[in-house]
UniProtKB/TrEMBL annotation:
Residues 1-21 are annotated as: Disordered. It comes from the Bacteria. It catalyses: DNA(n) + a 2'-deoxyribonucleoside 5'-triphosphate = DNA(n+1) + diphosphate. It comes from Azospira oryzae. The active site is at E152. Keywords: Cytoplasm, DNA damage, DNA repair, DNA replication, DNA-binding, DNA-directed DNA polymerase, Magnesium, Metal-binding, Mutator protein, Nucleotidyltransferase, Transferase. Binds 2 magnesium ions per subunit. Residues 1-13 have a biased composition (Basic and acidic residues). Poorly processive, error-prone DNA polymerase involved in untargeted mutagenesis. Copies undamaged DNA at stalled replication forks, which arise in vivo from mismatched or misaligned primer ends. These misaligned primers can be extended by PolIV. Exhibits no 3'-5' exonuclease (proofreading) activity. May be involved in translesional synthesis, in conjunction with the beta clamp from PolIII. This is DNA polymerase IV. Monomer.
Length: 408
């Protein structure tokens, strides 16, 4: 399986920047976009239920929460206040977010903040359909795309001879025409900055930024705006007096290395200065598919068992969904844990039969979990499927029983 980063024409390829910041910052600019669909799942639901536009809507209920047709022909929608269970929010409309209700929050907690919000179950078949539509619309204009998930992509615009703002507007118009949905785009010289910028003018926004604007426009932002700085790392930075990206940029690199380790400390320093040389990866054959979650508070395997179990099962099911959506099965299932002290551990299990089944992935990941120490509190949990095979090719493989009967 081959990784295929997007390349510029030979005469405009940037050399690998040296380690020092001034030389890296002076490297020839690329033009990278991050396109993020606006409240994607909720927005797809509003296409199906336009009468809910402008109202707080939460996606994350169960099948029993599906709207019911009443005798007069109108629809009856479940309310968040009526939910009982331990489910979590998949996404919410901007009206619900204004009430403090965000993805990843427990539905019962959200009901205390927005009891009258409409509750809808997730419809992943519809989300996958609209995901394919918006990506195809973008690819018709700018084919060099890195797929980052169901609702976001990176796009290399460096080779397109069109001014940035008109090109961004053309991309947004194509997405709207194909889906009826809006998106927000950040365009900068690299992926890290574009990811930050796509979130600065939501919904339906465009943010364009050059390296020379990093001090004025990026440094005032909270440090947690950098993708990769989770709640726990942000808390540790705060304890060091580092609250903004500018604070982080001014912090001595040796101090960051001392508190976060050599690799993470160096990355934090470079990220704060807007330095990111990662190419776009357009591989059509992924080496692995994974999901992970950094918790807002450290969780304990025993005291928070129910919450961890729900999160763990949900990740396994999303990995299964990702595999099915991309047409793969996995022979190896693995887990990743990061403890409160930032130490990480991984475990893998190779299956006799490749799978994309959620229950089988959950069972294998559970076996991996039994092989790691769980005395410490956890700040991150992840599930990974690797050793991937196209589902069609895997179906042609002999079964383990047939293989066992073959002579040595």
């Amino acid at each position: 399986m081959k990784d295929e980063p997007c390349q510029l024409p030979d005469d405009s390829r940037a050399p690998v920047p040296p380690a020092d910041l001034p030389a890296a910052a002076a490297a020839p600019e690329r033009r990278i976009a991050h396109l993020d669909m606006d409240a994607f799942f909720a927005s797809v639901e509003l296409l199906h239920y336009p009468e809910l536009r402008g109202r707080p809507v939460v996606v994350g209920g169960r099948a029993v929460d599906r709207p019911r047709r009443q005798a007069d022909g109108s629809l009856h929608f479940a309310r968040l206040r009526d939910y009982v269970g331990r489910g979590v929010i998949t996404t919410s409309t901007y009206e619900a977010r204004a009430l403090g209700v965000f993805s990843g929050m427990g539905l019962m907690k959200a009901a205390q903040l927005a009891p009258d919000a409409i509750l809808l179950p997730a419809n992943f078949d519809a989300y996958r359909d609209y995901s394919r539509r918006f990506k195809a619309a973008v690819a018709a204009i700018a084919p060099c795309i890195e797929d980052r998930g169901i609702d976001e992509i990176y796009i290399d615009l460096s080779h397109i001879e069109e001014a940035t703002l008109p090109l961004a507007r053309r991309l947004k118009a194509a997405v709207l025409a194909a889906t009826g949905l809006t998106c927000s785009i950040g365009i900068t010289p690299n992926k890290l900055l574009s990811k930050i910028c796509s979130d600065l003018d939501k919904p339906d926004g465009i943010t364009v930024l050059g390296m020379e604007e990093v001090p004025a426009r990026i440094w005032p932002l909270a440090a947690k705006k950098i993708n990769g700085i989770g709640p726990k790392a942000n808390e540790r930075l705060g304890q060091l007096g580092i609250h903004s990206i500018g604070d982080l940029a001014a912090a001595p690199p040796e101090m960051l290395v001392q508190h976060f380790g050599r690799s993470t400390g160096a990355w934090l320093h470079r990220a704060a200065h807007g330095i990111d040389e990662r190419p776009l990866s357009t591989s059509r054959e992924p080496k692995s598919i994974s999901r992970e979650s950094t918790f807002s508070r450290d969780l304990h395997a025993r005291h928070d068992r129910a919450e961890l179990s729900e999160i763990f099962t949900g990740m396994c099911l999303r990995v299964a969904d990702d595999l099915a959506r991309q047409g793969y099965v996995a022979r190896t299932i693995g887990i990743k844990l990061r403890y409160a002290d930032f130490q990480s551990v991984t475990r893998d299990l190779t299956l006799a039969v490749p799978t994309a089944d959620g229950a089988a992935i959950r069972k294998a990941a559970g076996e991996c979990l039994k092989r790691v120490p769980l005395q410490q509190r956890l700040r991150l949990l992840g599930v990974r499927a690797s050793s991937l095979l196209p589902a069609a090719a895997a179906a042609a493989l002999p079964s383990p029983l047939v293989q066992a009967e073959l002579p040595l």
